[in-house]
Amino acid sequence: MERLAAFSRGNKAKRMLRGLYHGKLIKYGNQISHSDRKTRRRWLPNAVTKELYSEILDERIRMRVVTNVLRSIDKYMGFDNYIIMTNPRYLEGIGMSLKMRMLDKLRSEPDLKPDDFLNVSPECWAYLEEFDQKQAVLEARAEEHRLKEQEKQIEREEQVAQWREDMMQAKEAGEELPPRPVEKKRKTAKDIHIERRLAARERRQNRKDNVTRIMNMKQEMKLRKQQQRADS
Hints:
- This protein is 56% helix and 13% strand.
- The protein is α+β, with helices and mostly antiparallel strands.
- Among the domains are: 14-121, CATH 2.30.170.40; 137-184, no CATH class.
- A hairpin with a 4-residue loop joins β4 (47-54) and β5 (59-66).
């Protein structure tokens, strides 16, 4: 059987990259006895070794899977349907490798139809079309961003060249040297994260202030009604 390369994304255990765990992780906690004594323990995912058959790839693949994945395969009515239509965040490593291989085969062989398979849903072709459209949009955005960066780089180089020319002329004329053009610093991931945290904190504070203002208004209206009743 062909060895499939695992996609490494994030800080994941290697065993998760070699199997289908559907996001299941090791859980840690305490086992409490009748005397309220805590014993530290962990709960491992219920993983078993299974040999699954892919109709699109025409291969039998042996891997570790959790029982939740087996129930999901039955729900999707086929291993290929589960791999193709499941959210990529639940397919780490070998799952994403299989997904890309299946989509590449459906894309490279347009003669394939749902009638050619037993348990492959027509929704797989719809998913492929939607996937290609999203990829085209992302590639267009990446190309647009690349062109903008290229224009900015050309503009910066022209500014530096003009500054050098002005500086040479100022030296020859004995005048004051012009200031060097300042490049705008790019925001780092840390700066963006801090800005988002501050914006979220400001939104929370605004909601609290609004709630406090509404409660005060209700209290004032209640006191006003009580005062009117007392006067009448």
